Amino acid sequence: MADNGRKLKIAFCVYRGNPYSGGQGVYTKHLTEALTDLGHSVTVFSGPPYPELDGRVELVKVPSLELYRDPDPFRVPKLSEFRTIFDLIEFGLMSTGAFPEPRVFGYRARRLLRPRMLQFDVLHDNQSLSWSIVKLQSQGLPTVASIHHPITVDRELEFAAAKNVKARIGIFRFYSFVGFQKKVARRIPLILTVSEVSKVDMVASMKIDPERVKVVPIAVDTTVFRPIDTITREKHQIVTTASADVALKGLIYLVAAVAELIDEFPTVTLVIIGAKRENSDVQQLVKKMRLEDRIFFLGKVSQTEIVEQYARATVACVPSVYEGFSLPAIEAMACGTPLVVTDGGALPEVVGQDQTAALIARAKDGSSLASAIATIFRDEKLARSLSHHARLRVLSNYSWRSTALATVECYYKVIDPTGLGYDEQVAQDDFQEPQAYKASS
Q1: Are 157 and 321 a contacting pair, CB within 8 Å?
Q2: Tell me, what DSSP letter sits at residue 120?
Q3: Between the CA of residue 230 and those of 36, 226, 227, what are the distances in Å?
Q4: Which of 55, 174, 184, 311 has the fewest CB atoms inside 10 Å of its own CB, making it the most exposed?
């Protein structure tokens, strides 16, 4: 990957920046640090929870009402908290069941970015895909956007898993932002995504020109996620990461797999790095199968504790129905933990189709997961081989420096768009501000 020598000033936008809660925050933290290591200057405009950034990266906080914050999600703010029209829009949208954060973050971020536009060479939007990003682009700020996987997939899976009409209406309202994000994505000259599978699905579901989608895999910090030889693995212990107990993550199928494994492996346990959601389908299955003493939810834990859990486990598992990439998969591989994934989305692409670095089970199939996990439980030689090849695959393919270099190439392309096949004037002429945006500008 070539570096043309020009050092860039980059505005990086993310509507949620917490580095320990979801892939967006991890991506923000590590990519901006790697870009800075290459000599570029990065300013992050982030909504709460705010990221923990390298000291060389400027953070501009974009405040919000934090309507989904712990421990009081869907809270009703005090009257004194309503200070701008953006606050009213944010609360109004949430009150109707919609998810307002991407849209309202865009309004606020543009107000902070607009006076500083001439300071930056390029704007990188990390999946907010708000109308405000298009507006900044139409005013002359070259723009790229990251879409880690098409949110349309989440919506479809949640809708399919809904048990009644009321639940479907709620899902439809919550994902109402998908409509405008699809329109915005089609107006961005270059989209970065993390896998070939994600690109194909995005082109199909969001109607984006494939020539304007660039695959740039994300990475893992292998100095943090690493084997710890001083920790002994617990026999027949499985570990998984489930930051959200939703249909997409397939946790219910892993619980079913544990129930199948008990007969042959009476000491089997499952440790879940994530919070328990009471009365969910997963919890109901745990109770029905009487697995309360086998399955443990850790809640939110530190990065150090996550690495230690990988070191203790016999097997790590990513049971997702669909993944556009999967940070937990490469984190487990970097730690040298024998891994089982499903064939959902990009997981085989990430871990390798040849199954030398991880075993691949069928998605939405607890028996297939149980069979793959049991294979590793029975064969210590296979477990050691998977561990060795997993670490090598990560070291060879998933470094943040490589991600940063490929991302900078994309920046250069939109700064000098010759050959991109993208008509900036058409994009500007085609842009129409939504009424809510006009009212808030």
Answers
A1: yes
A2: -
A3: 34, 12, 9
A4: 55
Tokens of 238: 């499985």
Place of tokens 């309503």: 82
Neighbours of 73 (CB within 10 A): 10
Q: Report the pLDDT value the prediction gives residue 3, as an integer from 0 to 100.
A: 52
Query: What is the rounded distance in angstroms from the CA atom of residue 327 to the CA atom of residue 316?
Result: 13
Name the nearest CA neighbour of 10 among 134, 142, 105: 142
pTM of the complete model: 0.88
SS3 content of the chain, % helix, strand, coil (to 5): 45, 15, 40
Task: Please report which helix (H) or strand (E) contains residue 85, including its range.
Answer: helix 85-95
Helix axes 303-312, 327-334, angle to 10 degrees: 60
- Domain residue ranges of the chain, discontinuous segments joined by +: 9-219+400-436, 237-397
Interval 242-248 mean pLDDT: 75
Tokens matching residue 416: 């000098």
CA angle, 235 as apex, 230 and 236 as ends, to 5°? 135
Q: For the chain, what is the radius of gyration of the CA atoms?
A: 22
pLDDT value, residue 245 = 67
Fold of domain 9-219+400-436: Rossmann fold (3.40.50)
**CB of 150 within 8 A of CB of 205?**
yes
Nearest Cα to Cα of residue 356 among 319, 324, 396, 383: 383
Question: What sign results for the dihedral spanned by CA atoms 332, 334, 338, 339?
Answer: positive
Neighbours of 428 (CB within 10 A): 15
Name the percent of the chain lying above pLDDT 70.
Answer: 92
Closest CA to 332 of 295, 371, 369, 306: 306
Q: Which fold is adopted by the domain 237-397?
A: Rossmann fold (3.40.50)
pLDDT reading at 439 higher than 50 = no
Residue 277: which of 70, 79, 421, 130 has the closest Cα?
A: 70
Measured CA to CA, the distance from residue 10 to residue 129 in angstroms comes to 17
Say how many CA atoms lie within 13 Å of 145 toward its Cβ: 24
Cis check: omega of the bond before 71, within 30 degrees of 0: yes
The region, left, alpha or beta by phi > 0 then psi within -120 to 50, assigned to residue 421 is left
